[in-house]
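Notes, p. 3: input format for complexes.
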Amino acid sequence: MDLKELYREVILDHNRTPRNFGRLEDADARAEGHNPLCGDQLSVTLRLQGDRVADLRFEGRGCAISVASASLMTEAVKGRSREEIARLYGEVHALLTDRTRAPAGDLGKLMALAGVAEFPARVKCASLCWHTLNAALERAPAPASTE
Ligand code: ZN
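Output follows (147 residues plus zinc ion):
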C-alpha cells in the first residue's frame, strides 16, 4: 500500500467512524463552524483542565474531508495545552496550503490530510474544525493563574 492509499484509508475510516463524535454536556466552551462553500457544518464542545483541553467532542455534518479532519483533530489535540494546539494548527495549516513545505513536527495521523493541498477548494473543509476549535478556545474562560 503506498502512502497516498494509506492516507486515503485513514480519511475514509475517520469519515465512516468519526472519533469523539457528539457533544459534551458539561462543556466549558462551545462554538459552531460553517463552511458555506461546501455546506459543512460542525460544532465543537470542550472541557478544560487548567490550560489543557481535557476532553472535546464534535458533531455536525459535511463532506468526508470535513468530518475526517474534525475526527483526526479531536484525537490530536486532546490533552494538549493551548500553546501546543496553536503550534499544531500552524503545522496543519502549512500542510493544507503549502505543498512544498515539509512539516516541522510529527503530525502523526494528521498527515493523512496532506493530499488536500492538491485540492485548494477542499482546504476550507479540512480547516473548518480548527477554526471552530479556536473560536471555542477564545470563548473559554481563562485558566485560573497559578503563578
Ligand atoms: Zn466540505
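The chain has one domain: 3-139.
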